[in-house]
Amino acid sequence: MSTRVRTALISTAGHCKVACGFCFRADRAHGFLNTATYTRALSRLKEAGVEAVCLSGGEPTHHPQLRQLVRLSRQFGMAVSMVTSARTVAEVIALSQVTHLLTNVTVSADSQGAMRLGRTTRSTASGIDTLRTVGTAATILHVTCWGLRDEECQDLVRLVSEAGVEVQFSPVVLDARTLRREGKSVQEYLAQQRHDADVLGRYFALSTRYRSYLEELEDLQLPTDAVERWSCRSTTAYVSAEGDIRRCPYGQAAVNVHAPRAAIRHLLTAPAQDLVIPDCAAICRPASTSEDGAQRTAV
After folding, report:
1. 271 with 262: CB under 8 angstroms?
2. With 70 as the cut, is the pLDDT of residue 270 above it?
3. Residue 34: closest CA among 241, 260, 249, 239
4. In the predicted model, is pLDDT for residue 253 greater than 90?
5. Which helix (H) or strand (E) covers residue 205, if one does?
6. What is the per-residue pLDDT for 290?
7. β-sheet bridge partners, residue 83
8. Alpha carbon separation from 246 to 72, 222, 229, 239 (Å, rounded)
9. Which of 28, 71, 194, 201 lies 20 to 30 Å from 171 when distance is taken between CA atoms?
């Protein structure tokens, strides 16, 4: 059975200055997404029934034609949203110039432990400052969590309540190489995820989907004969900065936007062949859930 692709995550650049130590990006390169390539991608996605696109990293506010990218999406009748780590004056100005054209803006932030682990400076306070500055109603603070403490969660409750923004959470997802670098076993890593969920649960109304998601990640990290990896269920396709379309950022099958229409449509409409792995599970959501996603919470 094929899962219909409804949206597309589009990488606007092949690089990102934040360079999180736990970044889930499947591909990295130099340069920006070409507007001609983007236009062709929109045309082919539209033909396959895609209704909305999300501009993502690298950092979309660095793209020299960001406003044109947003306007092109709207000209194709597609809703367009953005995920950004914008913090600098130049980045926030670039974001502010297009927010009125976006259906949603998600600003990424990291917990204090995640900042240390990933060597980032994306604090929750600075993320809320960005959301306040851009001044749009549809805003979300997305917090990647690691090593949470009660005091930190109490401060976050106060910050998001005062700012009136929605908050989402996701656990840090580490690959085998990063685990070795940090000197942590898989068991220690999974125990930290469960601990962070318990701390969050004392201050935020975590959805049942969030905890189910942690169980799925554990099944993927510690597979047994009784647990089978499942096929990709994502309703979101992926377009790289080079113009390659995949059902998942980590998918093996790819078709370039310059390929024949039939090849692109087949990729997007045929049953997915890729199996879910921990890396793609960090950004993949099953189509069967009625909730917005495993990371959504209510303050």
Report:
1. no
2. yes
3. 241
4. no
5. strand 205-206
6. 29
7. 106
8. 21, 27, 19, 6
9. 28
